[in-house]
Design a protein that fits this description.
mainly alpha, 86% helix, 0% strand, rod-shaped
Length: 161
Amino acid sequence: MKNLTNISIPVILTISLVLLLNTGSSTIYGQIIGQTNQTNQTSGQNTTEQAQQQLDQADQQIQQAQQQKDQAQQQLLQANQTQQEQQTNQSSKQQDPEMNEKLLNYTNAAILALNDDNTRAAQDSLVQIQNALINASGKQVVVVPAPAISSPSDDDDGDSG
């Protein structure tokens, strides 16, 4: 609006001066009117281009805001996952007191059996400890028997004595 005012005031003043000085020449008057129309059309085009530029800038700002929103949502999801993992870790660290008692009882039984040279009872206690730990983990576990994982060098050491 300011641009239109800045352009129209000098044009009006120019037209007025020309009319006052050349009252008898109608062709000059027609030329001035034609120039005024061209100026108004150019001004309208500039306004349209400016509006288009502003619209493009607004679109870019909307896209940036959308990207920031998406990033914030991703960060929120990551934070939630981290919080859930921490809660899971804390709950797994806070074992059931009954489970702790069972494990202590099994280890005590294994120690007493080993002190009495009762390897069968010690082995049974260790199996019970292993089963209790598997159940507490809540995951599927494949148990490999001890003889299957013993190395040949262990057998050689016992026979060469």
